[in-house]
Amino acid sequence: xxxxxxxxxxxxxxxxxxxxxxxxxxxxxxxxxxxxxxxxxxxxxxxxxxxxxxxxxxxxxxxxxxxxxxxxxxxxxxxxxxxxxxxxxxxxxxxxxxxxxxxxxxxxxxxxxxxxxxxxxxxxxxxxxxxxxxxxxxxxxxxxxxxxxxxxxxxxxxxxxxxxxxxxxxxxxxxxxxxxxxxxxxxxxxxxxxxxxxxxxxxxxxxxxxxxxxxxxxxxxxxxxxxxxxxxxxxxxxxxxxxxxxxxxxxxxxxxxxxxxxxxxxxxxxxxxxxxxxxxxxxxxxxxxxxxxxxxxxxxxxxxxxxxxxxxxxxxxxxxxxxxxxxxxxxxxxxxxxxxxxxxxxxxxxxxxxxxxxxxxxxxxxxxxxxxxxxxxxxxxxxxxxxxxxxxxxxxxxxxxxxxxxxxxxxxxxxxxxxxxxxxxxxxxxxxxxxxxxxxxxxxxxxxxxxxxxxxxxxxxxxxxxxxxxxxxxxxxxxxxxxxxxxxxxxxxxxxxxxxxxxxxxxxxxxxxxxxxxxxxxxxxxxxxxxxxxxxxxxxxxxxxxxxxxx
Amino acid sequence: xxxxxxxxxxxxxxxxxxxxxxxxxxxxxxxxxxxxxxxxxxxxxxxxxxxxxxxxxxxxxxxxxxxxxxxxxxxxxxxxxxxxxxxxxxxxxxxxxxxxxxxxxxxxxxxxxxxxxxxxxxxxxxxxxxxxxxxxxxxxxxxxxxxxxxxxxxxxxxxxxxxxxxxxxxxxxxxxxxxxxxxxxxxxxxxxxxxxxxxxxxxxxxxxxxxxxxxxxxxxxxxxxxxxxxxxxxxxxxxxxxxxxxxxxxxxxxxxxxxxxxxxxxxxxxxxxxxxxxxxxxxxxxxxxxxxxxxxxxxxxxxxxxxxxxxxxxxxxxxxxxxxxxxxxxxxxxxxxxxxxx
Lengths: 551, 342
Prior knowledge:
The structure holds two protein chains of two kinds. Chain A is an alpha+beta fold. Helices cover about 35% and strands about 20% of the residues of chain A.
């Protein structure tokens, strides 16, 4: 009886969903069939998961969802484009360009920015976009909590009082202080402009920002609008013909399929059943490039490194911690088989982060190679100087979610450290639990792959070396001298000679102290059919469909 | 002995299932909470601070005591609310209604395929024990059960899709450009037929064949072996010898007398294999990008997403109860002598 009621309830839900679905799909269904693999449709499969929601302000929205939001929504500004050394295109974080805002002005005192919005821009439902929507969206981002609020804070955007509506098409942001991250933080995926009047119809007492509704529906005004979203199955976007914030994209329809098996994704590309295989693993990247039938582009991920974090606290679980001794950390850095890791674990993909020229940093380029290379004799000699000349037993934890490269990497490290008398037991942590490992900070060694969005070394160091001990400071490294330098660097910026000095000084400390051993700067790879062009690398590591061209 | 009516059996069984389901609810709740991993830390996002994690924990109600959490969960469950999946962002009930039919359809066809090969194979093997056909049956089934399903799946995919191009692209239940039929039963093959949409039906079946075949190969062995053993036992019994002695036609002996009597253990195995396949087809689902309940549960497990795991366990428990009930009812039909206690 109870079960039947449950089923009935379920049937009602389904009927409701189906009704809502038909209202939406009657428009699109004939188009779907007519456009089968035409030049107007882009078929995409991707690694690294599938969007789990459409609202990137909702709790738990995953990284792939930034990609869908990036195309569904506009931001006030976007970044420029530059050509990299290998001829591929990348966004340019030094150039801000108009998106929804036509123009902007920084006040003379440098403490506010006033944005002029496009007067002809509308949301997908036809409502004009006004400064009220912008304010509501910014208020939402700083108030909703969790990652969005955290990311806004990184650019000193913390309270709704900072955002004001001057008139319908003028919006002002008051700065808390002069901070080089504030302006660029308004062009990252988080501060999207949401159709506030539409969402307000769906807010509830428990959900004042309507995240539940926005998570499943389209409240945007971006270049693409939502056609179908089935989590774990497919996402279909179609071009928004009234888009005003940039040149109209060439591709009319995007179909993103969730195909969990990397081998299947590759077969689909090779058979010509999809146009783009995005976020391809190192091994497939190498092999697809060797086949030669596809356009394969690998871009080193800015501000990201695969590192071994050596916990530098004095004690772990009540026992003395060998990695507290800087000589032990240096010995490990000399023992790592870097070349073997590059070839076996990374399949030659990515930029080596070892073998740097000197302990005195010459540039502020970031990431840059650390001055360590495999040298077993030196490793043994350094360890002999430490308090643990005969080695010790320890563990190395890695995320099973990154098993493809992390496992061979760890096995190589294990073998190499055994030569020093350091007996390593590998701890394989399932993806869900690895976050907990990062938070607990009670493992002696972990493999970390932190990367920062805002491309400054001081930003990277703030999260991975600074004594505030953020989640990504996997070594729990504490050094007041380094903290001071990082804080000072954050207050200034490139072009200021003091900035260069600060960066070089904290890099030098990192080189000498080695709380984390960088191995490689990973790459983001895409493999495409030869008739696809216009691919651009973005710091958020997602596809921007607006620049892609087929045919 | 008074004969029970099947209706009474069903009612009694369903009533008796309530405490076990309640037990499952409690165990699933406790187990998910005891799993290592920090849901809040996971969903707080990549660069979360301790405060951000605490905030998420509060939003998800994970900061409350276990008892209060359980009370809220049980109360919602009683009102038909299974909670919301953080992984898909959808209510768990919606997800299950969407994904359970996908798995049932796949498992059902896989089993149908296994039955249609394993039972004839088992019968023939029993009729000619230790002949070449018996040995062939044995090697086929051994191979089937010893090859991991993901391997069989990838191999079939490699040959039939990648090399030959006969099978459709393994992108789930339908082709890229086929619109799914209206959700009536959730079985695409049935729904498309109900809508008289032949092209969708053909597409749905085409996408079903390879994964169902993969699953079926795995299920061959237990079914064929039980059929053979059970048939061997029956064929050597007295009443078959009598039937032979009386000169009854061979097919009457084999099918009407021997097979019907051999059917009980086969049906039992069928039930076990079905429920086992339903839970174990997650690898096949992954390989064929099938949006089934298995991969749904595993994804939830990977992210310590409690609500879907609990929903999955409860659904599976309900299914087992119904399946066992169906098998017991079937027993009564196959062999009227069987008396199943409620």
